[in-house]
Each structure stands twice: as C-alpha cells, then as structure tokens.
Specification:
The protein is of the alpha/beta class. It contains 9 helices and 17 strands.
Length: 411
C-alpha cells in the first residue's frame, strides 16, 4: 500500500498551564497522535549540530520551546492533521508555505546602476558610505554585537568574513550552514566584512556574524524553517536578526514568533520585498515578515537616494538604504554586485549593530528609536510609505548623546 501524502504544518500549542494535559510535553502529544515517522530536533540545542542527511526531509520536525510560542513543525498526513486539530491541547494547526531570497536577477540590467570602485584594494562600497557608516567607526565597529543572518548560509572562510564569522546552524534538511547560493554571503559582507586591507568593508566591520540557514541553496525556504531559526536566535541571545527574505501567505505563527523575539529584546530587520510600488506606495506591496509591526521593513533606494523601481512600499515601511548594484562578498573568496531589498536590509542590520555597539546598555526599542529618529528624510517631511522615516544614518544614530524620541514602528 502506498504511503499517504504528507503535508508540512505548524502546530501551535496552548501554554502548558492552560492545556488539558499539563503533564505531557508537546512532542509527546504530537507523537501520540501520529504514526508517521518523525525525527524531532529541539531548536535551542542545534548550536553544534544540523539536520543530518540520513534523515529524510519529510521526517524532520522542529520543537520550539518558547513559552509564548510553543510550536512543533512536522510533515503529517491529513488524518494526523485532523487528529491534532481536534486535540484539546492544540491552539491551531496551520499549513506551511514557501518564501524566497529577495534579490533581483535579470531585471537589474534594465535599472540605472551606480558605479562601483575596484576591489583590487580595500574598498568601502558606495552603500556603506552613503549611510555614513565610516564616520561612526571611531565610536563603534560593533565588536561583540551578535548579528544572525537568516539566509542561504555564509561562506565563513571568505577572507573578508573569517575574522567575524562565529559559526552557524542549518534548519534546511540535508544542507550545512555553508552558502551554496551566494545570497547569504553577500548579505553578510554588507553587514560585517572586516577591515583587513583587502576586498570590501561592511557597515559593522567588527560585528559577530552567525549563519542561520533558513533558505536552501536554491534560494527558497519553508516558513517552518524560519520559525525554527528565529527560535534559535532567541535561545542563543542574538542582538540583530537580518532577514533578506520574504513572501506572502505566512502562517500566523510566524508573526507570533517575531513578536516573541522582539519581546525578548532582539531587533528584527527584514527586506520589504521586490514587488514594485505605486507612486505613493499605497496600497502596500510589503511581504512577510517585513509587514509585521515587530519587524523593521527596509525599502531599497539607489545611489541618488531615489526609491528603486523594484522596491516594495507601503504603510509598513520603516526605513530605507541602498539596494541597487551593491558590491559585497560572494562564496569562494570573490566579490560581486547584487540588487534588491535583500541588499538594502543588511545595510540597516549593520547600522543597528554599530549603534548598539555605541550604546551597549540600550534596549532593542531604544536602538530602533535612534535609527528612526536620525534617519535622513527623503520624501515628504516625516514618514512616508516609500522611504519610511528616511535613509538610515549610522553616524548620527551612533554618536547621539541624549535618548532618542519615541519613533513608532509601522503600521
């Protein structure tokens, strides 16, 4: 008899003190309801291990131990899903889905692209200079600030990244934290390529980089992987989460997980998306997770401070940075240019790291207030749906000597 088709789902449980069965762990509850083979990995304990190739992708399950978001993700049959939906300990069961890396490929050739300097000697890329990062380095290079790059992985042996790369973890079944795509390594270089006399320099050249692989080498991922990756970041006390990814139709569990991370003091930064925009930026084209209030959504501008044609926009956009023809690191020790809100996002992530390094006892809310209140306005006075509060300004935020005013996250 053929095995029943299995579908990936995200099972959110009621808090343990509100469950009908308070003595059973949520993994026990799942395994008691299913007969399909599952191998459960606890996300908080994956610092030194990844999903081995010997475990089939459909057998992989993640146990997410956060009180506010008690979740198990698994691939189950319709019969098993129905049983869990009827279990009194379960709050909801949601379908998983797919999201993508948010860089632009062939379409970039039709854009007006800023010129980039040679990489034969150490170079400060145009976007890093544009957001006034170099003047801030005298007060902070973000040493000791932990930045998680939730992406396709990182080439930790790259000469410009090796000094700052602190390790990685993969939530993609059968794939290591190594970058088989180039997207994650490119984002990592914009954040924290080191000052070492070669190649390029990142916004935060002494920040600690962690690869949290939630996108496969093909550039796509499952929401369940991202939820598991964010949980790992909470457990491992990351400061900044850089998410150059997105899509639509995400389960509500993802927003809950983002809210949990923010409530635990992490600062979440995400690409707004590459779906284009109207002249006013309304209606919104911002994807998830950038759409969430607990996540800073970053739109993309070019070197002339003009919104890029591909950039998403809308009421959820908070801030902007360069995302057109951005020069950064690629696997194998090389360098290359990419475009997209994926490239704008790490500029802001790096900025947050520098600012946190300059204000080490600040909270994630205070760091956002510094970034938002000092942004260089590009649209109408105040906030707008294309540029948010404006282009991030690292030096003004890092060198601020008084507490920043409260800047609301959107919407």
């Amino acid at each position: 008899m053929a095995e029943a088709t299995r579908n990936s789902v995200i099972i959110t449980f009621k808090p343990k003190d509100k469950r009908a069965d308070k003595k059973k762990d949520k993994v026990e509850i799942v395994t008691s309801e299913v007969s399909s083979k599952v191998t459960v990995f606890e996300t908080s304990k994956m610092s030194s291990m990844n999903v081995p190739r010997s475990v089939a992708p459909e057998e992989v399950a993640f146990d997410i131990n956060q009180y506010e978001t008690p979740i198990v993700t698994a691939s189950l049959t319709d019969k098993e899903i129905k049983a869990l939906k009827g279990n009194p300990n379960v709050a909801k069961v949601e379908d998983d889905g797919t999201f993508y890396a948010l860089d632009i490929y062939p379409r970039v050739e039709s854009l007006v692209i800023e010129g980039q300097p040679t990489v034969l000697a150490e170079t400060i890329p145009g976007g890093v200079s544009q957001i006034n990062a170099p003047p801030a380095w005298d007060c902070s290079r973000a040493k000791g600030i932990r930045v998680a790059v939730l992406d396709t992985g990182i080439d930790g042996a790259h000469p410009d990244l090796a000094a700052n790369y602190k390790g990685g973890v993969s939530f993609v079944p059968g794939e290591s934290p190594a970058d088989g795509n180039s997207h994650g390594t490119h984002c990592a270089g914009t954040i924290a390529a080191a000052i070492n006399g070669i190649g390029v320099v990142g916004v935060a050249p002494a920040a600690s980089l962690y690869a949290v692989k939630v996108l496969s080498n093909s550039g796509s991922g499952q929401w369940s992987w991202l939820i598991a990756g964010i949980s790992w970041c909470i457990a491992n006390k990351m400061h900044v989460l850089s998410m150059s990814l997105g899509g639509g139709g995400a389960p509500s569990a993802l927003e809950t997980m983002c809210n949990t991370a923010f409530a635990n003091g992490l600062l979440l930064v995400a690409a707004a998306g590459n779906s284009g925009h109207t002249p006013t930026g309304v209606p919104s084209t911002v994807g998830q997770p950038g759409k969430y209030k607990s996540v800073i959504a970053v739109s993309a501008i070019d070197s002339a401070n003009v919104i890029a044609p591909f950039s998403s926009a809308g009421p959820e956009v908070e801030i902007c940075a360069n995302g057109v023809n951005v020069l950064s690191t690629i696997p194998g020790g090389g360098y290359g240019t990419k475009s997209g809100t994926s490239m704008a996002c790490p500029h802001v992530s790096g900025a947050a790291a520098v600012v946190w390094g300059a204000h080490r006892f600040a909270s994630n809310v205070q760091i956002w207030n510094l970034l938002g209140s000092t942004a260089f306005n590009l649209g109408p006075p105040g906030w707008d749906a294309l540029y948010g509060y404006g282009r991030v300004d690292v030096n003004l935020a890092a060198s601020a000597l008084v507490p920043a005013p409260n800047v609301p996250l959107k919407p």
